[in-house]
Amino acid sequence: MREKIIAGNWKMNKTVPEALSLVQEIKIKLTRSDYKVVVIPPFTALYSVGGAISGSPIKLGAQNVFWEDAGAYTGEISPVMLADLGVEYVIVGHSERRKYFGETDEMINKKLKAVLAHNMTPILCVGESLEDREAGRTINVITAQLKAALDGIPFVDIENIVIAYEPLWAIGTGKTATPIQAQTVHAFIREELNTLYGNNMGDKVTILYGGSVKPDNAADLTGMPDVDGALVGGASLKAESFLGIINNAK
Ligand code: PGA
User: Fold this and answer.
1) 169-178: per-residue pLDDT in tens?
2) Is 5-248 a domain of CATH 3.50.50.60?
3) What backbone phi and psi angles, to 5 degrees, belong to 217?
4) Is 68 part of the annotated catalytic residue set?
């Protein structure tokens, strides 16, 4: 089902006390209920943050996951462990994981399936590099990422996936895609889902924009017809800017 979501990806930031103080402030000052608000702390703060938001409308997300349920995989976190903590959303295929940790489309596909198998919602990240965009390859890159990530995922599960379009050149750079650039790719993703799955699937999937979303560009970006919300990095680390984005969203 298509939802409106503002999600804050805290990346590798916040100790437990820092995470708690941030989420408490968000919880107290959150007034809006038409957007689902998701906080995505590092693994080490999931348990505490989960406790702090319990009973509130704020949802818990994780930044990554391994695809096996348990076993000898030193350093990894399984979907069973995340579900046990009350995690409802899991980022899969973030460009930083693809770039720094060698995540391939095949790994992303396995992670996506594991998240769905444990009844959590994957937030699948796709996006092109500046080089790809300048060479006119944006659509080809997005198509290839989508097809590889969704390979073998049954029709009934597609609606339970959130897609985040995050152009690499806009992540953490202060350079945002223009609303038109975001809208164009979002509309293309919907078309591609229609082609792959039929049944107007493109209209049923939530698609977020990510990449330097700030309070002052949130309205224009979320005002686009195919942009259902935002995946926010840097600006989600302070309650004021995260709430500013939530409040300004269209
Ligand atoms: P940013 O990060 O808002 O700091 O650009 C977005 C993301 O990586 O999800």
Assistant:
1) 998 888 888 9
2) no
3) -115, 0
4) no
